[in-house]
Amino acid sequence: MTVAAPTLDLDRPAGRPAPLIDPFARAITYLRVSVTDRCDFRCVYCMSEHMSFLPKADLLTLEELDRLCSAFVVKGVRKLRLTGGEPLVRRGIMTLFASLSRHLATGTLDELTLTTNGSQLVKYAAELRGYGVARVNVSLDTLDPDKFRAITRWGDLDQVLAGIDAAQAAGLKVKINAVALKGVNEDELAGLVTWAHGRGMELTIIEVMPLGDIGEERLAQYLPLSIVRARLAERFTLADIDYNTGGPARYVRVAETGGRLGFITPMTHNFCESCNRVRITCTGTLYMCLGQEDAADLRSPLRASESNDPLYAAIDEAITRKPKGHDFVIDRRHKRPALSRHMSVTGG
Ligand SMILES: C[S@@+](CC[C@H](N)C(=O)[O-])C[C@H]1O[C@@H](n2cnc3c(N)ncnc32)[C@H](O)[C@@H]1O
Ligand code: SF4
């Protein structure tokens, strides 16, 4: 399958559409796109074991994903992250990377990257590097094979570790994302720091977020990163560093390893003032904020016309609604999450 050539609007002689500036004067330069809601794992904090997935007709085609991403690039997005579900299980996904790489070649895009569970990296790492992908985020919560199976339900640790090896061998920089889970991997986090930094990889620890169905289990998994950080500080010397990607991560340098360690604490810290990002689901729904329900349908304008003008208009209108910030709350009495959608729908 081939992805269509760049859409005509990219070369409009009338000039580029206005860049995306929200009502709080934040420039939107980072887009995360979920290319599928499907996955070859069933991580306990992300999906139920018997997830029902969206009908194929609802999903954007690869051509539509290309058109949508390219429209955002025209409107000033400089960094594009493909995610999911598991982006590398979407059939034909390499054609999308291939076609989006043209924006790297022209210099209109600074970075094309992905977040992956790593299961398919043995197969795709070299190809991704060939399409200009320089870095990948790999999600890995434990180095214990049995725990790994328990957390991911269907995953195989060796396959992921081989994927990380393949990524590094192909010249990709790897960052590891680990979700901190109370009573599951909390005793392993220091070991993960040593392991990741020892292999030249950055590590980011993520606080579990109240997305999707939670019930008792998710509440029981919640481990505040303030506790994680305090425990790590007993073992390592952590120095705050002034490194900011516009997202919810705060970074420290670990003196003993020389490596960088990030903490993503969406529930306990406010990171919204510098927010530069928006997210699109695999059905073309634009979420202006990970922590709020307000959204805009971009699939309709995309499918309604061959011209990108209705799409640009819908994007502009949506950005005027980007909220100043969010507030995640777990309703402990009713054991309900603040948001009903799953992370695999919005993308991580
Ligand atoms: C939804 S996954 C999609 C990409 C890919 N399948 C992966 O696992 O990297 C993106 C990230 O979201 C994280 N994630 C999923 N559900 C979460 C939750 N409830 N709280 C915090 N992080 C979560 C995952 O650990 C992963 O790092
Ligand atoms: S976190 Fe990633 S790998 Fe795990 S179930 Fe969700 S989408 Fe799949």
Structure description:
This protein has helices at residues 62-74, 93-106, 121-130, 145-152, 157-169, 189-198, 215-221, 225-235, 299-304, 309-319, 343-346; strands at 30-34, 79-83, 111-116, 135-139, 173-180, 202-207, 238-240, 249-254, 260-264, 277-280, 285-287, 295-297. With 348 residues, it is α/β, with parallel strands linked by helices. It is built from eleven helices and twelve strands. Helix 3 (121-130) runs parallel beside helix 5. S-adenosylmethionine binds at residues 39, 45-46, 83-84, 86, 115-117, 139, 177, 179, 206, 208-209, 211, 343-344, 347-348.
Outline the secondary-structure elements:
Layout: E1 30-34, H1 62-74, E2 79-83, H2 93-106, E3 111-116, H3 121-130, E4 135-139, H4 145-152, H5 157-169, E5 173-180, H6 189-198, E6 202-207, H7 215-221, H8 225-235, E7 238-240, E8 249-254, E9 260-264, E10 277-280, E11 285-287, E12 295-297, H9 299-304, H10 309-319, H11 343-346
Parallel strand pairs: 1-2, 1-10, 2-3, 3-4, 4-5, 5-6, 6-9
Antiparallel strand pairs: 7-8, 8-9, 10-11, 11-12
Helix pairs in contact: 1-2, 3-5
Bound molecules: S-adenosylmethionine and iron/sulfur cluster.
S-adenosylmethionine binds at residues 39, 45-46, 83-84, 86, 115-117, 139, 177, 179, 206, 208-209, 211, 343-344, 347-348.
